[in-house]
Fold these 3 entries.
Entry 1:
Amino acid sequence: RICPDCAHRQTSRLLARYIPVLMDIEASGPDFYSVKHITLTTPVSLDDPDCKDQIRTIMKAIPGVFDTVAGKDWRSDSGLLYAFEFGEEGRKLHFHCIWDGCFIPQSELSAAWHDATNGLASVVWIEQIHHDPEKGRTLESAVAEVAKYATKLSKKDEHGRLKYMDASIVVKLFVILKGLRRVRSYGLLYKIDEPEHKRHVCPVCGCP
C-alpha cells in the first residue's frame, strides 16, 4: 500500500485497463463529450483522528456529485474513475477524477461538491485532456495521476537533496490505507477486466 515500486506497477496495470476503454468512449460518444481531469480538494488532513472515516464518507458522496451536475442517467453513456491522495503540503486529502462525458460547468461542480461534503469543501479544478502532449495534459498522464501512489514518501529540499518523510507518517498512512479501496470506477468504466499479462517473477528467489 505504501511501496513506491508497487505503486508504479499498479499504475501500469490501471493504464492498460482503462486507457483503451476511455478512448472508445470518447470515439463513440456524442461530439460534445470529452475527457476531463478533475481535482476535488478537501481540508481533511492525514493527521486528523477521524481521517479514515471522512475518506469513506466523501468517497461514497462523489458519484452523487456527478448525479447532480450530469443527471442521474450518466452511467449509461459516460465513465468516471477516481482515487484519493494526500498532498505534499499539509498532507491534505484530495481526489483526482477522470470524467469522460458531457460538459460540466466548474461553478455547478463546485456547488455540488460543497453540498455533498456538508460545506466541508468547494474548491475544484477542471482540466481539458489533449491528444498532443505539447498542448497540455494527455489521457495517459491524467490516468497516471489518478493511479499513482497515495502520497510522496520523499521530496527534494532547497539544496536538491532527497528528504524522506518522518517514519511515523508512513505508519499512519499504512493504517489509513488498510482496508480502503483507493481507486473506484463508475458508469462505462465499472468492472473493466484487467488485460492478460505475463506474471512477474523475481529472478533471484522465484517469488511471484
Entry 2:
Amino acid sequence: IVGAMVATRENVSDAVFVAAAAFLISGTLYAIYGPSSQAQPNPHAGWAGFKIAFSEVKNPKLLLRIASLAAIATIHPANAALLPLQVLQVGGSTKDVGIIAGLAAALEIPLMLLGGYLAQRIALWRLIIGAGVVHAVYLVLLGTSYSLPQVYVLTVLHAAGASIMLTLHMTYLQDQLPDRP
C-alpha cells in the first residue's frame, strides 16, 4: 500500500504517514492482544543475563554463523537505502521507487512460501547461501545498471534473494540453539 502511494502521489510524506499509522495500529494490537506483562521477573536480566547468554554462544563456529547471518540481515536495509539513489541516477523518479518497492513486496510473498516449501527439502544453510548469492548478484547488477528498465527487471532477483533470506535466517539461527528462544 505504501509503495502504491509513493507511485501515485507526488508527495511521499503521505506514504510515510500511512506507514507510521500501520506501525501504530500494529503496536496497539500487540499491546492489547499480545502476551501478558504479568510474567515473572527474570533473575538474569541486565548485564548478568547478557554474560550468561553470551557464554552459551561462545563457540567460534556458532559465532561465525551468527556473524554471517547478521551480515545477511543488513542487506535488506542497505538495499532500501541504495535503491532509491540508483533509481534516481538512471533517470527514474520517486514514483518508480514506489512501483519497484510495491513490486518487490508483491513478489516476496509467494517467494517466501516457496522458500518455506524448499526448506522442507533442502538444507537451510544451502538455501541461505543460494539466496545470498542471488542477492549479491542483484546488488552488483543494480550498482552497474544504466537504465530504469534494468532496475525493474532486477527487482525479481531482489525479491527472490531477500524473501528467502528474510524468512529463513532466523529459523536457521534458532536451529543452532534449539533450547534457547
Entry 3:
Amino acid sequence: MSPADTSPAPPGGGPRRGRGRPRRAEAAELPATRDRILAAAREAFAERGYDKTSIREIARAAEVNPALVHHYYGTKEKIFAAVVAAAAAPATAGPPVGQQYPPEEVGLAFTRLFFGIWENPATRGPVLALLRSAVSNETAAGIFRSFVSAQLLSRVTEGLDLPDAELRAELAAAQLVGTAVLRYVLCFEPLAKADLEELIKRLAPVVQHHLTGPGPSTPA
C-alpha cells in the first residue's frame, strides 16, 4: 500500500492540482497556447530533427510547462505527427485529386500537389525534418509512412479504379520522393536550382504512366 500524501493543500482548502496537469491559467489560454506549442515544435523538429528534440526543449521554446505539452499533445511521437499534419493541411485540403481531375490529368495534379508541399515554406521544414529523421529512426519512419499514405497516396487511390491502385500510387510517390531528396535534402545541382515548372513538366508524364499506364506484360 502506498504511503499517504502528506503534502499541504493549496490555500483555501481546494483540491491539489494533479501531477502532470497544467495550471488553470495556462489551460485557459487555449487555443493560443496550443498554437504556440505547435509552432515551437515545428521549429525544433525542423532544426534538430526527431532524435535530438525533446518535449522539455519544445516547452522551453514555447515558454510553457512541459506538462502542458504532454497534456495537449501526449508523447513526442504524437506532437511530431501533429506538426506534420498541420503543416501539410493547406496543401492537401479539398477533395481527393483522383476525384477532381479526369484520369489523364491525375499525374500532373498529383505532381503539383506534391511539390506544393515542398515549395511552401510553412510546410517544407517539418516535412524535411520528417524525411531526415525517418532515415535513422523507426518511429519517425512510421509517422512518415502514415503521412504519405493518409495525406498523399489516399488522395490518388480513391480516384483510381484499378486493382493495383495502391502499388501504382506508391511507385508514383517513389518517383517524386526521390526527386525531393535530391533537390531539397542533398541539393544536387542543377536539380536543386531547376525551374519548378520545368520539373513538373518533365515528371508529370512519368507519374501519369505509373498511375494509369499499362502494367508489365504477362509472360506467355
